[in-house]
């Protein structure tokens, strides 16, 4: 919000990110490859609006046009020509009514900048960008008289702060990333020690992005968090006092090991969009496995062969330990399904002992 602008509805309008050319590594330290533009939006009073008679002509009078609002540039690091192009693009979107207050928007726009076009992937970071803009609103409310000193540095670091945390965590944990993936998937509490503020926030953001929150029922997630806490009595501890984090009480399985390898293989290119896409694929595969197991369990309620299929699936999927805990919580109020889960738990225990 831009409360300093009177006489109308104010909104912050968008950051534009343009990256280096093809084959060029993207690193969070390279501020020259990221741009931003912050505009103040003010709706102009409509002349004769009260005289509408409900006719089609009156409705046309309320269609937005560039005369209905004004855009004022508050801060940017774009070249002058590119800034003009961005402002024109935003004005056209506003005229069409394509931007709404309180809703984030990701769009592609061609700008005249020296580095050329950027890779398109910001839609993968909608949640992070929404949170970043919410904090920007707070900064604007508090520091509207000191924009250059407080808000401008915040805007200049948007790419590093909102887009790159997953990349930094992958580079920090390397082959230990599997245990972090396991903790996120199993809702295991994680305690970070001896880390600087940015590293602690990065780990927290990675865990949030890697969890199935929003993809499984809220009640299931809450019950699973309680169950995991009661069962383990200990959080996974990440000690960042050395050059590489040391993990204590860490879990792991073959599923997370396989996906860790995908992250490590992608680390050579240093592409934060690739890491986020891998993370989304990781969650998608986990959800598919959960749904397959639930389908097998429904079949196993009436078919012993399907029960054996459940067992084989759990044994071969690589994440049977986590999947079984999730479906156990989901089927807690279903007696027949709960009995199937109990039998599967016994099978898995006997197999692990053997």
Automatic annotation (TrEMBL):
Database matches in InterPro entries: Njmu-R1
Region (Disordered): 1-31, 46-68
Extent of Acidic residues compositional bias: 7-17
GO biological process: vesicle tethering to Golgi
GO cellular component: trans-Golgi network
Pfam families membership: Njmu-R1
Protein name: Chromosome 17 open reading frame 75
Provenance organism: Cyanoderma ruficeps
């Amino acid at each position: 919000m831009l409360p300093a602008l009177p006489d109308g509805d104010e909104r912050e309008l968008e950051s534009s990110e343009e990256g280096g050319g093809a084959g060029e590594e993207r690193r969070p330290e390279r501020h020259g490859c990221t741009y931003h533009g912050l505009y103040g939006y003010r709706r102009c009073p409509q002349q004769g609006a009260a005289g509408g008679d409900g006719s089609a002509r009156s409705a046309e009078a309320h269609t937005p046009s560039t005369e209905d609002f004004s855009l004022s540039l508050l801060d940017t690091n774009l070249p002058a020509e590119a800034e003009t192009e961005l402002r024109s693009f935003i004005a056209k979107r506003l005229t069409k009514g394509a931007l709404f207050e309180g809703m984030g928007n990701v769009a592609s726009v061609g700008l005249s900048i020296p580095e050329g076009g950027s890779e398109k992937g910001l839609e993968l970071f909608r949640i992070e960008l929404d949170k970043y803009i919410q904090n920007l609103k707070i900064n604007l409310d508090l520091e509207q008289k000191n924009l250059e000193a407080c808000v401008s540095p915040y805007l200049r670091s948007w790419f590093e702060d909102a887009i790159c945390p997953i990349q930094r965590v992958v580079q920090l944990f390397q082959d230990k990333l599997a245990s972090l993936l396991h903790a996120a998937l199993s809702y295991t509490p994680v305690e970070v020690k001896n880390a600087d503020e940015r590293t602690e926030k990065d780990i927290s953001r990675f865990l949030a992005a890697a969890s199935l929150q929003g993809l499984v029922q809220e009640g299931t997630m809450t019950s699973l968090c309680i169950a995991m806490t009661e069962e383990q009595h200990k959080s996974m501890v990440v000690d960042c006092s050395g050059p590489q984090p040391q993990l204590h009480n860490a879990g792991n399985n073959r599923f997370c090991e396989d996906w860790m390898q995908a992250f490590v293989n992608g680390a050579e290119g240093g592409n934060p969009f690739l890491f986020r896409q891998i993370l989304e694929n990781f969650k998608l595969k986990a959800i598919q496995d959960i749904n397959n197991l639930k389908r097998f369990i429904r079949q196993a309620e009436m078919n012993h062969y399907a029960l054996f299929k459940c067992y084989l699936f759990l044994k071969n999927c690589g994440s049977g330990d986590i999947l079984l805990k999730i479906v156990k919580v989901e089927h807690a109020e279903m007696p027949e399904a709960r009995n199937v889960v109990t039998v599967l738990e016994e099978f898995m225990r006997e197999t692990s002992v053997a």
